[in-house]
Amino acid sequence: MIQKVFNRYEKKYLLTEQEYCAIRKRLEEYMEEDQYGLHTIRNIYYDTADDELIRTSLEKPKYKEKFRVRCYGETDAESNYFLEIKKKYKGVVNKRRIVMKPEEAKAYLEQGQKPKEQSQIFKEVDYVWNRYQLMPKVYLAYDRIALFGKEDPEFWVTFDQNIRSRDFALNLENDAETTKLLEDGYYLMEVKISNAMPLWFVKILTELRIHSTSFSKYGNVYRKSLEENGGRKVC
Questions:
Q1: What would the mean pLDDT of 72-90 be, rounded to a whole number?
Q2: CA 201, CA 149: separation in Å to the nearest integer?
Q3: What's the CA gap between 232 and 83, in Å, rounded?
Q4: For residue 235, is pLDDT > 50?
Q5: Which among 139, 140, 122, 119 is positioned nearest to 130, based on CA atoms?
Q6: 146 vs 190: CA distance, rounded Å
Q7: Can you give the three-state secondary structure of the chain, one letter per residue?
């Protein structure tokens, strides 16, 4: 069972197409596009029956957590499904995840059948799963380009476009019948930092007058659902 742990700061920036093109041009000197190019990331976000996790998150507490299942690109029997718990405490993001094949992941998520190999991270995932009695709530996908630093490969900048979601057919195999979160021409830039942000990057942001914002994909989908239903969440 593959597993990974991430600890880092994340900053988000909502860009117009003009700002996106300008910063992409400036980053060519310092960063390289990863091997995947433009690729699709698909997620199922899980929550309690009364949406406790996302409601708490939107209140901006010092500590918050989310649970999601993710895959990259098209899915088949040999795809990797990533079961993730994402925690944030005082601005530091801690992401812990394990990898399962689709059949194994579905057996666990739908039938409660635990894998034969149970690592420490799986036990943490299982604890969160059972503590909240989670259920699938939102399918959320987007198309991403990821860049990493030429001198510091731990410094990442990602650009997400065509952010889309649905609250039915909650599976990772089907990417149809979704609703776009943003208008065409907008991009969400995320900066992932282990230590300090490079000075050259700060200079670029300053010169282009690009400022960080608070933006949660799942949170905005949830808000939009509330607005469409007159402030009442409909299952």
A1: 92
A2: 10
A3: 29
A4: no
A5: 122
A6: 9
A7: CCEEEEEEEEEEEEEEHHHHHHHHHHHCCCEEECCCCCEEEEEEEEECCCCHHHHHHHCCCCEEEEEEEEEECCCCCCCCEEEEEEEEECCEEEEEEEEECHHHHHHHHHHCCCCCCCCHHHHHHHHHHHHHCCEEEEEEEEEEEEEEECCCCCCEEEEEEEEEEECCCCCCCCCCCCEECCCCCEEEEEEEECCCCCHHHHHHHHHHCCCCECCCHHHHHHHHHHHHCCCCCCC
Dihedral (CA of 211, 218, 146, 129) sign: positive
b/e map 38-73, b = 16+ CB within 10 Å: eebbbbbbbbbeebebbebbbeeeeebebbbbbbee
Domains and CATH numbers, the chain: 3-228 (3.20.100.30)
- pLDDT value at position 74? 87
Write out pLDDT tens, residues 143-169.
999 999 999 999 999 999 999 999 999
**pLDDT tens, position by position, 163-185:** 999 999 999 999 999 999 999 99
**Per the structure block, which two tokens stand in for 69?**
């299942």
Task: Give the global pTM.
Answer: 0.92
